[in-house]
Amino acid sequence: MMKAKNNRYMDKCRNGNLYKNRIAVLATMHKKEQVIAPILKRELGMGLVVPEQFDTDAFGTFTNEIERAGDQLQAARKKIENAMLISDQIIGIASEGSFGSHPMVPFIPFNRELILFVDKEQDLEITGFAANSNTNYAKKMVGSFDEAYEFAVAHGFPEHGFIIKATTDTIQREEIEKGITCLEHLNHAVTKLLDSRSAICIETDMRAMYNPTRMKNIELATLDLVKKIQSICPECSTPGYEVVEYKKGLTCQYCGNPTDLILSHVLECKKCHHKDEVLYPNGKEYADPSRCNWCNP
Ligand SMILES: [Zn+2]
Ligand SMILES: [Zn+2]
To answer: What pLDDT score does 55 carry?
Structure first.
């Protein structure tokens, strides 16, 4: 009996149908379903529900009135657990973004998006990522409406939303105005806070529905996630057969020495721990001498 069920599961996996006509709950209140739902539908045949009245702000906000619990992955897990509970679903999805400086070039802003997929039935966790400098993340102290307006326009206003607050690190709710996408709102927020101080902080609103640039990165992370879900373990057919190691050492075409370019990917199954090493993942068996430390030091 057990075996029959298992075989059916493996057949579904092999055909890429494991999640066809299944439903996942998306733990969001920031309209992320706009980019996530069409990809799940197209690539996996999967539907999405968003719980009404789901307060993701309880798990942390970018403006820090509520501190995020743990790292991005832990925060996403918490949101999913909660959304599964109130929606009675066993498959859940949540995304978390972080913003800061580029890891190598400190003055360039950087956005790292994570999207987590949890299948409780299969005891499976798969994570998609996107990380790049394509973000308008910025903040500035300004002393007038004109200055605030200039900053806003330079960072994508009014297509992108903005936040006005008393200081860069204020956490008082009454001193923060979010989701500003029109001139009247901007004017009102700036004037109100400038009334009792000489400078205020303006910053980009990073919540997905106020930030089309971030929404694009959530879309990229979702595509990465779906690709991993579609990658099936050759041994046990579990989805999420993914790269766990990148090995350097592609041979130089001219001198034959190993270079820093990728020679192989190691893939591993989370369930049965089957491993494969795939040579030449970028389709090239040799490195160009211009990338070789011996030929082109
Ligand atoms: Zn496996
Ligand atoms: Zn060489």
So the answer is: 74
